[in-house]
Amino acid sequence: MEITNARYVITDPIKNVANLIRATIDGEVWDIPLTVGNRFYDEIMRQVEAGTLTIADAE
Amino acid sequence: MSTLRVEALEQPDGTAFVFNNKNLLINGGMNIFQRSTSVTGITSESYNTADRWKTGISGLGTWTQTRSTDVPSAQGFGYSLKMDCTTADASPAAGDYLQIQQRLEGQNLQHLLKGTSSAKAVTLSFWVKSNKTGTYICELYDNDNSRAISKSYTISSGSTWEKKTLTFDGDTTGAFDNDNALSVFVNFYLGAGSNYTSGSLATSWGSVTTANRAVGQVNLADSTSNEWYVTGIQLEVGSTASGFEFEPFEAILRKCQRYFWYGEIAGGATADDDYSKNFLGNSFPVTMRDTPGITLVSGDMIGHTSGANGVTRVTKDSVMVEWSGSKYRSIGAACYQVLKADAEL
Fold it and tell me: How far apart are CA B323 and CA A13, in angstroms?
């Protein structure tokens, strides 16, 4: 799974808490919930832990 | 009028006869292809064409996967899944492998009584065809307890449909977790390097020894002339194979949509109080396995702009997308968004 351009997304500006990660996965832009068990989230976290991916802060 | 009273119906091996939903696998008849009917250039792990069937691959060739109308004669199947080698690898590295696999949730496998003295056998049956004759391996891999069992089958006649039946003993060790997470891989090997083939095939359940997982497996990747077809895959409780369970298309589709949905939401837009965003939400056709990832494919807020540019909220049950910064005050504007929701294992 090739993952690039990962960054947190804040969809509720009042609560100001990131609840998604937006990333390009195998050429498609995906919005990924911060849910263990979602295969994309699990892979993002695996790559972050391995030091091969960084998640940018929300804009 | 007469009455037929039957206390129990049993399979020949004494296990209970199951009238429906006996197939532990989904889309074994290759009916549902939500993503695509043909994908080229497959070199990495991915869901490509047939729903629920994942390509597990590491380093072993390049493949085109298609929905094929080449099926066993007069068996009732409309399609098969075809793997076609487009870049060969005649000398696999030790860690290379190629599989077609399906991943199963533990909560759907509790009746196998795995990890108890009453653990039940399961039988895998399928139709297969390849020009590459020889030994192939099917494996059940218990992800909860790192245990596995493998069985071999032989494609004996080149380019001829053959039906195969493999029975896997019950495992008295290691219960499956009773949840929506991955418990079992059902793996059809199409090639494997020496890391997987250098031992003795693990034909009984045991802790995983990598070298014993795919011993004897031929290398389907050794020529670009090679192709492999499969359909009619059924995994059922018991030590005998019964006839394939043909289900209505819509029933199979709903089962698949628990894991992946490629569809459209449509309606009238809403907006937040300063009109900085417009929203459109809708429910999924079925509750998904877990909160899915979402990718937006195409859409429109008719008369205003093009597709949504992000997800506002997503749960197992619904998704809401947003048009950020659109500043359209016309609440109720007709809009739609095509998207993919992925909660696959």
Answer: 15
Q: Do B45 and A1 touch (CB under 8 A)?
A: yes
List, in sequence order, every residue forming a beta bridge with A31; answer none if it has no partner.
A22, B294
pTM, rounded to two decimals? 0.94
**Contact call for residues B280 and B321 (beta carbons, < 8 A):** yes
How big, in percent rounded to 5, are the helix, strand and coil portions of chain A? 20, 40, 35
- Tell which of B143, B289, B291 to mutate to test the A interface (max A CBs under 10 Å): B291
Question: Quick one: CA torsion of B69, B71, B75, B76, rounded to 10 degrees?
Answer: -20
Cα–chain center distance at A2: 13
Question: Which DSSP state fits B254?
Answer: H
Nearest chain B alpha carbon to A27: B295
Contacts of A9 (CB under 8 A, 6+ apart): A18, A19, A20, A21, A22, A31, A58, B310, B311
Per-residue pLDDT tens digits for B217-262 = 999 999 999 999 999 999 999 999 999 999 999 999 999 999 999 9
The Cα B200–Cα B206 span in angstroms is: 13
What tokens were used for B223?
């020529």
What ipTM, to 2 d.p.?
A: 0.93
Strands B122-130 and A28-33, bridge-based pairing: unpaired
Q: Nearest 10 degrees: CA dihedral of B98, B102, B103, B108?
A: -160
* Minimum Cα–Cα distance from B44: chain A residue: A1
